[in-house]
């Protein structure tokens, strides 16, 4: 196995703040991971006390990503991935799913959290045939992301852009839309966009828990309406079944009948 290529920026030298809960570490806790601190467990437990369904949403989101990547590699023939806001490595990371099917796949992860950076070098290993790189950058600076990703990815060939539970961290919706547009404009025809985010207008209990979390002093995460999530795909060709609650997106044939949750996502091709 080859070492991942990393690009540690200023965040690599930042101290990890363990006094304030962090969404990536809380998400890791809900997924059963170990890369979190007591403050994250406390925040996660407080959230689940109000809305236990968040664990189902977190795991449904992860399963949605796995099915997306499987489709992209096995059916669409994609071999390059730009995964922004990857969070802490757990099971079935993008490169693991992609390279399991096509070992030559190339994956660039993007995050700006120092704890993620520390774990990336230790855990994100590539197959010898492919490549796995990590960029220390911010989704709010798409030009920097694109510039650094070009060191690993060939922008003359299709790339799948993965934005899983990251756009909710962009407070201004119009800015979130413009970021998606800028990133997709840089990708060639035949590329894909995968987006999933927590949805507003579906489950009042989820909304109440998230609003309370946002007011706690932690980094806020903004739920979007289903129409707002769908609009991220404007100008692209949605893969069936379109934008749906994540468990309903091409569920595994041998799985129990999926139940919808307040998280919506989809996958679309750039013509």
Q: Would you tell me the overall average pLDDT?
A: 89
Distance between the termini: 35 Å
Q: What is the helix content? A: 25-40%
Tell me what portion of residues adopts beta-strand conformation.
Answer: 15-25%
Q: Class by helix and strand content? A: alpha/beta
Oligomer: single chain
Radius of gyration: 17 Å
Major sheet characteristics: 10 strands, mixed
Tally of DSSP β-strands: 10
Alpha plus pi helix count = 9
Q: Give the overall shape.
A: globular
The parts where pLDDT drops under 50 for at least 5 residues are: 1-13
What is the string of helix and strand elements?
EHHHEHEHEHEHEHEHEEE
Plain-language structure description:
The protein has helices spanning 23-30, 38-50, 54-74, 94-101, 114-123, 142-149, 173-185, 204-214, 226-231, and strands at residues 5-7, 80-84, 106-111, 131-136, 160-164, 192-200, 224-225, 237-238, 244-245, 263-269. It has 271 residues and is α/β, with parallel strands linked by helices. Helix 5 links the parallel strand 3 and strand 4 (131-136). The protein is built from nine helices and ten strands. Strands 1, 2, 3, 4, 5, 6, 7, 8, 9 and 10 form a ten-stranded mixed sheet that branches.
């Amino acid at each position: 196995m080859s070492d991942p290529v990393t690009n540690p920026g200023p965040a690599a030298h930042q101290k990890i703040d363990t006094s304030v809960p962090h969404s990536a570490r809380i998400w890791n806790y809900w997924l059963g991971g170990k890369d979190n601190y007591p403050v994250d467990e406390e925040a996660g437990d407080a959230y689940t006390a109000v809305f236990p369904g968040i664990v189902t949403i977190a795991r449904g989101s992860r399963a949605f990503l796995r099915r997306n990547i499987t489709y992209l590699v096995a059916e669409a023939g994609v071999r390059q991935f730009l995964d922004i806001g990857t969070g802490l490595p757990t099971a079935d990371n993008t490169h693991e799913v992609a390279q399991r099917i096509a070992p030559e796949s190339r994956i660039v992860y993007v995050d700006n959290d120092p704890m993620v950076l520390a774990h990336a070098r230790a855990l994100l290993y590539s197959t010898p045939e492919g490549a796995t790189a990590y960029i220390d950058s911010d989704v709010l600076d798409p030009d920097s992301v694109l510039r650094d990703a070009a060191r690993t990815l060939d922008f003359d060939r299709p790339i799948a852009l993965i934005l899983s539970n990251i756009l909710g961290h962009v407070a201004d919706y119009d800015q979130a839309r413009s970021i998606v547009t800028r990133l997709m404009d840089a990708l060639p025809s035949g590329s894909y966009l995968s987006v999933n985010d927590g949805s507003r207008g579906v489950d009042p209990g989820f909304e109440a828990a998230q609003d309370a979390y946002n007011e706690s002093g932690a980094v806020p995460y903004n739920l979007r309406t289903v129409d707002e999530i769908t609009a991220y795909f404007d100008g692209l060709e949605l893969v069936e079944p379109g934008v749906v609650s994540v468990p309903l997106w091409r569920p595994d044939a041998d799985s129990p009948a999926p139940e919808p949750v307040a998280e919506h996502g989809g996958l679309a091709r750039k013509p």
